[in-house]
Model the fold of this input.
Amino acid sequence: MGARVLLFSSLLLVALPWIGYRYISEMKEFLLQGQEEAQLLAAKAVATILHGRSDLFYPVEEAVDIDGIKSALYVYPLDYPLEIDGYAGDWGSLVQQARTFGQQHLVYNRVGGSGEITPFSLLVGEHGRYVYALIHASDKDIVYRNPKYRRLDHADHVRVETLRADGSIRRLMLITEGEGQVSVYEMKPDWKQPVTGKPVYALFGVWRERADGYYLEMRLPASWLEPQPYMTIGVANVDSEAERRIDTVVATLDVAAAGRPNFLITRSPQLDRILQGLGSADAGICVVDRYRHVRAVYGSDNNRALCTQKDSVSDELVDEALKGAHKAASHSNETGGSILIAAHPVYANDEVVGAVLVEKDSGHILGLQHRSLMRIIVATLVVFLAAITGLMLFAAWLAYRIRKLQKEASSAIDEDGRVLVDHLNADRFAVDEIGQLSRDFSSVLLKLKSYTGFLESIPRTLRHEILNPVNTISMSLEKLESGANDPRLLRSARMATRQLEVIVHSLTEAAHIDQALLQDENERFDLAAVVSEYASNAGLKHGRSRIGYKGPDSGVYVVGSGLRIAQLMDKLKDNALDFADEGSRIEFELAREQDRAVLSVTNKGPVVPDEVLNALFTGIISGRPAENEAPHLGIGLFIADRIARQHQGQLEIMNLYNMDGVQVKLTLPVVE
Amino acid sequence: MAYTIAIVEDDIQQRRHYAEALRMNGYSVAEYDSREQAVAGFDRNAPDLAILDIILGSEVGGGFEVCRHLKAHRPQVPVIFLTTRGDELDKIYGLQLGAWDYQTKPVSLEFLVARVDSLFRIQQGSGSQTGVPSVKGDIAIDTASMRVCWKGSQVDLTPTEFEILAALLNAPEGASIESLVRATRQGLVEDNTINTHILHIRKKFKAVDAGFNCIKTRYGFGYSWACQ
Done:
């Protein structure tokens, strides 16, 4: 039974941390959901503000067609101005984003020429008032300008086209005689004649040879790209140093979009300003256009996963937002943290022109979950340990008490069965089961001791009591044998026999009293009626001057056998008469105290020595004066004690206060 | 008529004394010293009365066993138990025998013989009216046949119970325990034995009359017959 209880309760204990974990998980989900909803709401708010503002995404003056957008060049925002030295180092990782232009972008192939093209990669960035470009061209044979020749187009060169505010095209040729700064001239539409022949210093470029070709890093004013952000880059290849004729030209122009420079997609300062007014410091907002280019960003980069991408954001979430759905997803950023991203589409003219992304890290929620979990685990462990320690201590304490009790119990009776003590001290007053065990054992010991005490006393007393009559019989027979014929001899022998009979009778009565008491039928009877009648009859028998009674004649009810109580009173009366002073009175008294009845028998006479007082009930004889003819062997009090116990009562014997007599008191529980 | 009396007693000295005393009074005696012997003997020749010592050898209740055997086969045979203890009386009452009595040890031969005579008298008396009952109120007593009638119905008492009742009736002021003890003619008897007898006498009277209440307990003294 105990094992099952233990198993069940340990299962419960195990369930606690699991419940705690589930709760924490639920809480985390709830918090994350809350953050998600907040972010979606923020994205929606921003998207609503941008609603209908397709002008922020694309210029309004011209209807930008799909082809124009497809061939657009993306201008990366740079964090710091670049050193124009022809080296790509300060472009950093951006170089990976460079777009390559090759065979599909061939705009001129001279008939009879070498046919070799110079594919190139192009990277465009902006910072402050300048736009920077990095061109990496592949050219096996670089032909520099020979200052002997006046013609500018007799060498490998780079072409830059931009749109002026009035709509005219600015055509610039970048040419050089060797590594280093390039010379820039504005050219006529045929790219053969310069317009003025004066160098253009606004564009600054540096040519650097590489193993497979050359780098050209340039810087031009950003104002050239306003208000029309268009630019085209072309690379012309001259292979023959002798002939010095242009063989091929590769340009960023889409072959189909003839005549117009590439559209440049930049971050929109207007969008940036709008976002600045809306954003919060710990969330990152960015706006993406329908081609997934990041057009505006606000907030710190620490919180970003998607908006940090410099070119186009390729992500399922963004794709879905651009299709019109608004949802949220979780991504991890470079440092491994978890970022929650909410996306909402921006509508203009019933179509999606872009999406708003609101990014915020959810690490603090996860951290909270983690910390709470740790706390729960620690708390559970502590509780476990405390419970186990407590239980073990309790078990150890119980074991110690039981061992103590057992040791005392086993030494209470010696090998021969003699009872050495009549009660145990261990846990005597404890209120729990062990205390009860101790008390029950003590009561067993007490009963046993009184029995064995009685039995042990018998040989001692018997020897004394039996020898006298046996002696008398022996002497009578001896005399009869030697011929005496005195009838008194027979009489004294007969009397001695009777004495022996009485001894045997008393012994058997005492030995079987408990068994006999069990056969009694118990009933509710009036103790006062019995006692008063008994005392009155005793007075008749012994003389009124010898027996007195004080107490009620009726009305005190107990459960048991009236005849047995009368028998008990007989024993007490006989005992009192034996010890009472000559002619003195024996007092019976009955009193009712709350739930008990107290019957006392008092006689004047010699006091009982203290050490013998309670031993009287065990049947040990106590120097009884041999004045009556029926030796009682002190058994009367023993029998009275057993009758008292059978009636759930108690006998006590004490010397009177003035030390001039003895009182025996019987206490019985009273019933209504 | 020479009645046959069986004595079952394992102590040879005592048995001889009983047998001699009974033979001297004209009875024929069969002696047995163990339960097995007694049972075998009864199967051959049933006695007219059996005297059983309760403790036979090592068997503490040997006498009771013999009695049960007798009751199963010859229930009309009266039995006298030789007892040493007061509570054996309760066991005897528990057997719910027909005609029986008991004798306490140490045995008084005079009382034992008288007991045997009484039992035969009772046995003879049942069925025929011999003697003139003396009537006192609702009770009629015939000392010769040891028969008692209460309000016309017969009450079967053992010889010892009869003696006690007679002593009660003869003491209008009440009979002390001592006088009742003397009336039992048992030798030494515990006080409580008288209480047991009174209890069973009352039960037997109540069996014929539920309202019987004539025997009154006088605590510290004895009992008295309280009806006219």
